[in-house]
Automatic annotation (TrEMBL):
KW Signal (keyword) present: yes
Transmembrane segments: none
Organism: Haemonchus placei (Barber's pole worm)
Classification via Pfam families: Galaxin_repeat (PF24748)
Signal peptide, first to last residue: 1-24
InterPro entries: Galaxin-like, Galaxin_dom
Protein name as catalogued: Galaxin-like repeats domain-containing protein
Region feature Disordered, mapped onto this chain: 174-211
Domain Galaxin-like repeats, chain residue ranges per copy: 39-148
Origin superkingdom: Eukaryota
Entry keywords, A to Z: Signal
Amino acid sequence: MSNWFVSTLKCISVITACCGGGAGSCQTYSTADNLTGIACCDLTPFNSITHLCCDGNYRKRSDPSMYVDKCCGKNLLVPNQTCCNGTVHNVVNGDCCGTAVYSASESTYLCCEGNLSRTISPTDKCCGPMAFDGGVQEICCGGKVRGDAVGLKQNKLKIKISAGFLYIASPDESKGRNGSTRKGNVEHDSNKLGESVSRMKTCGGPATNND
């Protein structure tokens, strides 16, 4: 707030309020009561009760009795709007995602490193700047989405971990010639894995579908 002073002209009932030590603009008031709430917005006197100073520009409050308005850059921001990077958006309870804005109550959006994506299923998660299905048919490796995790739940396959890498085999291949389970392999029913598939899958070796 700039310095301001008040001068009273003799024999005339006029009060002058100036900002910036007289270097800025001045406003005249008829009584001292009119000075209530007077402040400086840059070099201009303004009523802080009825207006809000936003980056040197005074804006009229939407409801002076509530004091709920805020500044968004040089513009006024009312409660049913969202401010993103100094720009006012007509979105209620919004969140910013890069240059985009979306409603925080919407569960169909994901903000991934400043990029807004629409979700397809409840399992969707962020993988770097992109969204992926959380390990159902895709995996996230080094911030990149790879679509080589075959739909385990749909194909009723089994996961086998052997020799430090992961490969996918059909149920018949998980049995030895005598009908017993092969030793040295760890089997997991795909119905119980769910999202843990992406955590078990190693990014270095691709999954192999042995049909």
